[in-house]
Specification:
alpha+beta, two-stranded antiparallel sheet
Length: 185
């Protein structure tokens, strides 16, 4: 089992940086993880969070991250841009139970102007023990469902994602190879 004491998960939570759009200027500031308190409806009969809820938490953290940098989903959609999920991975490290609080830290792993991969670290809010590692892959499409290059068609959004990606530090726990190798166990 991986915990924040064994890796750099805790320091990642402290040093993660985001870009926030304020009055047309970009301001670099420390990002707080997305916090979630487990609700009863998210659990099974054993009071353990059902595995499908982690995917919802990834989305909640991703939506908040994009809002913080000026890329809210409603703004994107008003401009005719959508970002569907192409794939999801999750590694469940230890159980989360009813009443627990978790912190979900999203991390831009890969961004190339057309596709975006975000990794997630779900940690117990009190102990910082890692509960789940996850990853979602996305692309960008126009209203007709055709792939869009943000670099060409939405350079402002492209720059926001590039700047965010450049400011975040990569962690070995987030790499796709770790996700894949542990799936084989």
């Amino acid at each position: 089992e991986i915990t924040s004491d064994e890796g750099s998960g805790l320091s990642f939570l402290v040093r993660t940086i985001i870009i926030q759009e304020m009055s047309g200027n970009l301001e670099v500031r420390k990002m707080k993880p997305y916090k979630h308190k487990v609700q009863y409806y998210e659990t099974d009969q054993m009071a353990v969070v059902h595995h499908s809820n982690y995917i919802r938490w990834f989305e909640e953290a991703r939506v908040e991250l994009l809002e913080r940098i000026g890329m809210s989903y409603d703004r994107l959609e008003r401009e005719g841009l959508i970002s569907p999920v192409l794939g999801v991975k999750a590694q469940y490290k230890s159980m989360v139970r009813f009443g627990d609080s978790v912190e979900i830290t999203p991390h831009i792993e890969v961004y190339n102007g057309i596709k975006l991969t975000i990794s997630y670290l779900v940690a117990d809010a009190a102990t910082k023990d890692i509960r789940c590692l996850g990853q979602t892959r996305h692309c960008f499409l126009n209203a007709e469902g055709k792939p869009v290059s943000l670099k060409r068609s939405y350079p402002h959004y492209h720059e926001l994602l590039l700047k965010l990606q450049q400011t975040q530090k990569a962690l070995p726990e987030y790499s796709e190879s770790v996700v894949e190798s542990q799936d084989d166990e």
